Amino acid sequence: MKPRSFSSFEKDEDGMVNINSKQHWDALVATGNPIVADFWAPWCGKCRQIQGFVETLAEDHPHVTFVRMNTGDEGVEPIKAALNVTVLPTFRFFNGGEEVGAPVTGYKKDQLEDQVTKLAL
């Protein structure tokens, strides 16, 4: 499968790309573009609390793709398992098709902003 270009991944009204399958995720990572992956669940209070901050970061860094993955979606399970996501929210960072930086877990705005700033350089 040929990777899709950056522009073919549709963002929602919050500037986020919603991923619900490993195929979609693999295609996005293969673009080599900088990515912030947000693993969340509707029942997760900290996930809901930090969401507005994540949306602001997405607005401030338009050349970084911010991805939202609902861990309750069956199609996200293989991604969650491969990346060993066990805490919500979890943020992972990718560039050039590979994971970069340290994961950020929980409600840690400063750490999240630092990692996004490094990724955006």
Detailed description of the structure:
By secondary structure, this protein is an alpha/beta fold. It contains four helices and six strands. The protein has a domain at 39-96. Strands 1, 2, 3, 4, 5 and 6 form a six-stranded mixed beta sheet that branches. The longest helix has 16 residues, at 45-60. The N and C termini lie far apart (29 Å). 29% of the residues are buried. InterPro entries: Thioredoxin-like_sf, Thioredoxin_domain, Thioredoxin_H-type-like. This is Thioredoxin domain-containing protein.
Structural class: alpha/beta
Give the oligomer, counting copies of the same chain as homo and different chains as hetero.
single chain
Helix content: 25-40%
- Unreliable runs: 1-8
Order of helices and strands: EHEHEHEEEH
Estimate the global geometry from the Cα principal axes.
Answer: globular
Q: Which percent range describes the beta-strand content?
A: 15-25%
By DSSP, the count of extended strands is 6
Task: Please summarize the sheet with the most strands.
Answer: 6 strands, mixed
The count of helical stretches stands at 4
What is the straight-line distance between the termini?
Answer: 29 Å
Mean pLDDT: 91
Q: What value does the Rg take, in angstroms?
A: 13 Å
